[in-house]
Write a structure and sequence with these properties.
The protein is an all-alpha fold. It has helices spanning 2-10, 18-85. The chain is built from two helices and no strands.
Length: 86
């Protein structure tokens, strides 16, 4: 099978039959498609991982924003209580 690939790549017109040359060229096309599919699968995995990280960091940022708001409210109440006691 690999000799079909080589002969279709090197000798477009040779003593081998046209069917062998065509079979080799189709095998090379199939190999190229498999490589492009692997790249696409890797890109899809990378995209899914980036989305998971984005969602995690977004939730962490929202959590910290709520925590900061709660702490600001607590500080404001403590200052108000201090002023009332004075």
């Amino acid at each position: 099978m690999s000799d079909f690939r080589d002969s279709s790549r090197n000798h477009w017109t040779s003593n081998t039959s046209v069917e062998h040359i065509n079979a080799g060229s189709l095998q090379r096309i199939a190999d190229a498609m498999e490589l492009s599919c692997k790249d696409r699968e890797r890109l899809e995995r990378d995209l899914a991982e980036a989305r998971r990280q984005r969602d995690y960091h977004r939730s962490q940022a929202e959590h910290l924003a709520r925590s900061n708001a709660a702490l600001c409210g607590a500080i404001k109440r403590m200052k108000k209580a201090r002023d009332v006691q004075s």
